[in-house]
């Protein structure tokens, strides 16, 4: 199908997390029992096939989308999410963290 072709052709910059988020969006946007190409959207809301190829344009659109996502949120909410994302990135998910955060010398140090 067209949706499958788009999914396999796309370069997933954020790797598995970006792909997972795209699938969540597609499930929510799908109008039928199957996900079609119309349900595949970038974080900015554009059709997946129309994502800009120019890295500078893509970065500008991503920055704009991130800024829009922050509107209406408190600093504490954003700070909490950033801390949790950093912990997840550096140590894995909470139940499987191999070492305590304090035992590391830097934000993602491996000691």
TrEMBL record:
GO molecular function annotations of the record: ATP binding; DNA binding
Keywords: ATP-binding, Cell projection, Cilium, DNA-binding, Flagellum, Nucleotide-binding, Transcription, Transcription regulation
Domain annotation Sigma-54 factor interaction: ranges: 1-28
GO terms classed as biological process: regulation of DNA-templated transcription
InterPro entries, alphabetized: AAA_lid_NorR, Sigma_54_int
Superkingdom to which the source organism belongs: Bacteria
Protein name: Flagellar system sigma 54-dependent response regulator FlbD
Species of the source: uncultured Microvirga sp
């Amino acid at each position: 199908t067209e949706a499958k072709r788009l999914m396999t052709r796309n370069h997933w910059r954020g790797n598995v997390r970006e792909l997972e988020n795209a699938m969540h969006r597609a499930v929510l946007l799908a109008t039928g029992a199957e996900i079609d190409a119309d349900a595949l959207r970038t974080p900015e809301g554009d059709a997946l096939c129309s994502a800009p190829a120019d890295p500078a344009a893509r970065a500008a659109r991503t920055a704009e989308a991130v800024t829009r996502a922050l509107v209406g949120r408190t600093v504490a909410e954003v700070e909490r999410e950033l801390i949790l994302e950093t912990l997840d990135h550096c140590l894995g998910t909470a139940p499987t963290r191999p070492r305590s955060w304090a035992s590391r010398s830097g934000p993602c140090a491996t000691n």
